[in-house]
């Protein structure tokens, strides 16, 4: 059966870890411009490479001569990453893995990945953003997110609106039916006690997890 899970190779930093390999295993792959460099480290060959190619050098392009390329003008109204998302959805994606979505040289692009991911979750898609060392999971009202984390791993919940009815379970600092004011740092730097779950009754949020970071333990 054709996979409906797609990994999108984006231009931010990416570290190959066991969790990254598990997240992307069995998925189809689309690269966005310089995100193609991650294909070398992960050991995959994307089925499509999109973008204006302003950040892909000749050596990288020469390394993948048989991958279909779709070139867009630099003066366009969307990012290369958003083009990659649209291509994945057109090919039947229901699950989207934004690999290389966190960090990097362009903080505006990283923030846009967050916003795009939240909109996609509202539309019913499953989305995770990853740098290999850090993962981000958007979740919205009337939903619950369960995440496997090792005991002592750092995680935070960021509210993109005021959050109503926020519940965090199996953490050092649990919450039950909590109201988180927009802009509050109350839910930064929590610690997992093992697999955690978060839910809320109203609002938009992002769970950022650092599965290999035990500095707060």
From TrEMBL:
Q: Key word Kinase present in the record?
A: yes
Instruction: State the coiled-coil residue ranges.
Output: none
Is the Transport keyword given for this protein?
no
GO MF annotations for this entry? thiamine diphosphokinase activity
Residues of the Thiamin pyrophosphokinase thiamin-binding domain: 141-206
Q: What is this protein called?
A: Thiamine diphosphokinase
Into which EC class is this enzyme placed?
A: transferase
Keywords (alphabetical) are: ATP-binding, Kinase, Nucleotide-binding, Transferase
Q: What is its EC number?
A: 2.7.6.2
SMART domains xrefs: TPK_B1_binding
- Quote the Pfam families the UniProt record gives: TPK_B1_binding (PF04265), TPK_catalytic (PF04263)
NCBIfam families to which the protein is assigned, alphabetical = thi_PPkinase
> Species name for this entry?
Rhizobium rhizophilum
């Amino acid at each position: 059966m054709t996979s409906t899970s797609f990994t999108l190779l984006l231009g931010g930093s990416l570290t190959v870890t066991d969790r990254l390999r598990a997240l992307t295993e069995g998925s189809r792959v689309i690269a966005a411009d310089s995100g193609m460099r991650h294909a070398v480290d992960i050991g995959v060959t994307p089925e499509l490479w999109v973008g204006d190619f302003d950040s892909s050098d000749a050596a990288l392009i020469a390394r993948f001569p048989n991958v279909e390329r779709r070139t867009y003008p630099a003066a366009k109204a969307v990012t290369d990453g958003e083009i990659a998302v649209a291509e994945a959805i057109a090919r039947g994606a229901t699950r989207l893995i934004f690999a290389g979505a966190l960090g990097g040289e362009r903080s505006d692009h990283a923030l846009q990945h967050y916003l795009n991911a939240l909109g996609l979750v509202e539309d019913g898609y499953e989305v995770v953003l990853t740098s290999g060392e850090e993962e981000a999971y958007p979740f919205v009202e009337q939903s619950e997110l369960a995440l496997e984390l090792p005991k002592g791993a750092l995680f935070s919940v960021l509210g993109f609106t005021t959050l109503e009815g926020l519940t965090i379970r199996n953490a050092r600092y649990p919450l039950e039916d909590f109201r988180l004011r927009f802009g509050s740092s109350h839910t930064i730097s929590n610690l997992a006690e093992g697999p955690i779950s978060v839910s809320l009754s109203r609002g938009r949020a992002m769970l950022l997890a650092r599965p290999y970071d035990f500095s707060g333990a």
